[in-house]
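Lab notebook page, bench 4
Experiment: in silico fold of construct C2
Operator: M.H.
Input chain length: 426 residues
Purpose: comparison with the prior construct
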Amino acid sequence: MLRLSKTDVAPGLCMPSVLIVEDSLVVTKILRHIASQVLTFDVFYADSAEAARKQVESRDDWFAAIVDLNLPDAPNGEMVDYMLQQKIPTIVLTGRMFDENRDALLRQGIVDYVQKEGLYSYQYCVNLVNRLYRNRDIKVLVAEDSSVTRSFITELLRRHQFQVVEAADGQKALKAILADPEIDILLTDYNMPVMNGFELIHALRHQHEKVDLVVIGLSSAEDKYLSAKFIKNGANDFLYKPFSHEEFFCRIMHAVDGMERKKELLSMAYRDTLTGIHNRRYFVQQSRKMIAQAQSGNTPLTFAIMDIDFFKSINDSYGHDVGDLVLIAFAKILQESLGRFLIARTGGEEFCVLFPGLAAEKAARLLDAVRKQVEESFVETPEGEISFTFSSGLSQLPADNLEVLMKEADIQLYNAKDNGRNCVCF
């Protein structure tokens, strides 16, 4: 079960409120237990429609509600109607669900419905609140030439809290995606003017290498081979129109879950396991991009390499566990002081920072301030308080490539060490 942590919430913001309306004491007990494990929202409970209305009227920060369809004082789904009227995203709990009821509820605008069929159902229901909260950071582009269909799909996505961008043809979609790297998912129709869905996917996958974009193809065509064609051209999934609300959401949730797992794996691959900051692999990849951007825009850029002074002596005197604590403390200081720049641990006691937009003089002043902070601080360890210093060498554009910048900065680092260490040279 996924639990949102406080770090998932922007600093200074409070978690919004969630209301769970259920008259069964047994079901409420189960929901309370699951919610306490997986939610960090302010969760409120009501066992009747009357109590639920009082709760709703007492606050204005409701993010979502889980509502029993049949309550003693609202036996015909009146509480669901009320929640939707209050514009609160609503997940419906029900003991029985007939096709006509399900379709009517989905047309009303509920997020989803969950039948009371066991523990998994309740876990799914509560975790869906977390899913809605995370969806707010996911941007989806809908490329569809039919304004009616585009509006329908957009409404479904917004019901699940996604950010939505619209495009009426493939060419507009391509421009939007290339201009906005935050677009995570593309839903594209096949038949569109100017540029069709195949051409759009081909351009993204082959010309612009947008391999991290999740693509779901859409079409009302009767060609039974169309889904295979879409996937062979680079789509992740395919959906025939018209589709049901549930099929649409299942496909989207499947795509989002896969995307998040991939991002999590990439994050692990790009993070230094000891300090938690980026590693050399990530630093090199991003640096090449930033250097190319600075060169094409003729803007300043500075590269810095840092080395903890006498780190081998720390390991020899106190042990590698203490040395690890020093590395962690140094990484934390760098992240807190220079977190807006690209920082990485690139080797044992070696760290690097890339300063796009800064000339060497300004970058050196920033680094020297960090140097003084490190010099005046200490690390608490099982062996007592340990202080340390670092030396740094800087280089700046113009330079042909990252390797040249690294080589020039390395020369300056040796100059810093020759000058007695605990200094910044460029």
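Observations: DSSP finds 15 helices and 18 strands in the chain. The domain at 136-269 is CATH 3.40.50.2300 (Rossmann fold).
Next step: discuss at group meeting.
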